[in-house]
Amino acid sequence: MRGGAVAAFRGRIVAAGPEAEVLAAVEPTPDATVVDAEGRLVTPGLVDCHTHLCFAGWRAEEFRMRIEGRDYLEILKAGGGILQTVRATREATEDELFDSLRARLLELLRLGTTTVEVKSGYGLDLATELKQLRAIRRAALWAASPEGTGQEVVATFLGAHAVPPEFAGRAREYAELVAREMIPAVARESLAEFVDVFCEDGAFGPEEARLVLEAGRRAGLGRKIHADEVHHLGGARIAAELGAVSADHLAVTPPGDFAALRDSGTVACLLPATSFFLMKPRHAAARELIAAGVPVALGTDANPGTQPGFSLPLVMSLACLLLRMTPEEALVAATRNAAFALGRGGRAGSLEPGARADIVIWDCPALAHLPYRMGANLAHTVIAAGRVRVSRAGRDAETSPREARTFPRAAVPGLSQAVAPPASPPRSGPPASRPRSGPGDREGDRR
Length: 447
What we know:
Elements: E1 4-9, E2 12-18, H1 19-25, E3 41-44, E4 46-48, H2 61-67, H3 72-77, H4 82-91, H5 94-110, E5 113-119, H6 126-144, E6 152-160, H7 171-188, E7 194-199, H8 206-218, E8 222-227, H9 235-241, E9 246-249, H10 258-264, E10 267-270, H11 272-277, H12 286-291, E11 296-298, H13 312-323, H14 327-333, H15 336-340, E12 359-362, H16 369-372, E13 379-384, E14 387-390, E15 406-407
Parallel strand pairs: 4-5, 5-6, 6-7, 7-8, 8-9, 9-10, 10-11
Antiparallel strand pairs: 1-2, 1-15, 3-12, 12-13, 13-14
């Protein structure tokens, strides 16, 4: 839209559309803030709906081993793999996990990400899983504070990420422990909004996955699942049957499972950076999923072992190159649909009345530049929860108690010029926010 405008008040968008309509809907306040996009592209803030950002220790040594052709079992025998991260995370303090997560959130903000899902899953015992989730909660509270980044942080419990060494060969027994003791403990402290499980050979089979997700449903948690990354075990169908908000990876999901996802409204969260980083020959069938009517989202899968990158714009590039998605599809997948994968459709990832005032000005004139200029950080100005958080030079903006109450003139990509009008509260409250398309609200979501 050319000549568009977005106005916000107290962290929420109150008007978006052609400039004349926005000016008719709002009145300026004396301390209104104007942000001029100066012809740059303006989009919603990006939504990363799949990350493993709360961990201790990197695993850079595995990168060389993979390049040399060593398989996962060889890496495990050398002391690497997920269990290396488990050992480091168990040894880390909650303060250390919080400090490192806070730094990673800031890095994501600088790349244009304003809503972030963060999973536990590197403890694989009750004490460490709770420690991770408490660190995530602290990071969420910090991000929402006046001194924070303004990002919304969404916690997911992934105690069934792998079978811990003390339960080697006893996956069922460990899954029962997760369902019987860990999930109720997480729910008692309200530490997570979702429960997730890794349904894969060498981790948890379909029955263990179902056991964990059903326990999460009983505890009032939304459901997610790592499904069909390497082997097809029916995880996508389990997600559909149990009303999961998303089924993630889906690199080897057969077309016969697509209808179940479509009919349930479960979002297919694709993670092309992971299959790329692992040098896999096969990637998720995005074109076929879209043709089947399945809502597709994108996430980074940021983690210390199999995808250490934090950039959603880079993931958008890979989605276009490897999955044959268009730039428009990739943007929707990294914003609106990703918000639905977190139960936040219409409240994040879009520029519409009622949504969070999360807006990115990109240092480029058109949408195609985002995936085309692969690896570049084009985020010029990042606004999260109604305040400028990253400045034009890419530095953190100086924040003050006063909230930014107006934003760049644009509601969709393609802006040629933007001079924002000042804004004030709407004369009659903001209209109800409903997405134009996409999955509906999922049963079991918690806010």
